[in-house]
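Reopening this ticket.

The earlier resolution said the output was attached, but the attachment link was broken on my side. Pasting everything inline this time so it's all in one place.
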Amino acid sequence: MSHYPASGTWQACPKCGRHVHQRQWGTYQQCPYCHYWQRLTTAQRLEQLVDEESFQPLTMTERPVNQLGFPDYTNKLRRAQRQTGLNEAVVCGTALIEQQPCILAVMDSHFMMGTLNTAVTRRLLHASEQARAQRLPLIIVTASGGARMQEGVYALVGMNLILAELARLAATPLPLITVLTDPTMGGVSASFAFKGDLIIAEAGAKIGFAGARVIQQTLPVKLPADFQTADQLFKNGMVDAVVERPQLRSTLGQALVNYGIGRSAHG
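Inline output:
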């Protein structure tokens, strides 16, 4: 019998380096020593945000396609699908949050870093269209490294398509709430992440466009220690609130109550 712990029982915290037992991470996946928040899967995020058994996926048939014949892209897609159990980097559906109905889209950084491509674009478009059709608020939880380079200009066009659809949503009384989690970078932050009527940043999230290392290599400047953090963005008026993970569900629930859209439309 081995005296070594089972694989995966302990994990070094990416921030402080302390060894943390899997039980110590807790429900909200927070380091007990430095309070670093682990990145969540879509399943974990849904479990924490929505009322039990209330999430109903929207019917979507879009699948990623290697339109440019990018080398090894098809294999990477298959690997990501196998490792995550997802077929793309976003999951969309109807849900109740604190008994308030909404359309919810959750991005997953574990699937090719949550990058935006044609399939993700179409799913987000469909989610917004359903919000308009069902007269429900739309909540988008971002977790993305930006546009997916393997789809080139097709991924970049998706940014504009989503912005055009969100403009149609903005012409209605229906609110868009964006929840920026770690990471929210690149084309996602440059397009729809900051288009919410209410913009919430999860505590500890890294949010920006180009990474700090790229900026430092390009411009000979010393960046502040809190550069591209949720707290820095809040101090500079870029987000409306910074909320710790255990309070996200109640915060969203109260926001939906304040908007008063979902219940008025659905009794």
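Reporter confirms the inline version is readable. The chain is about 35% helix and 20% strand. The mean pLDDT is 93.
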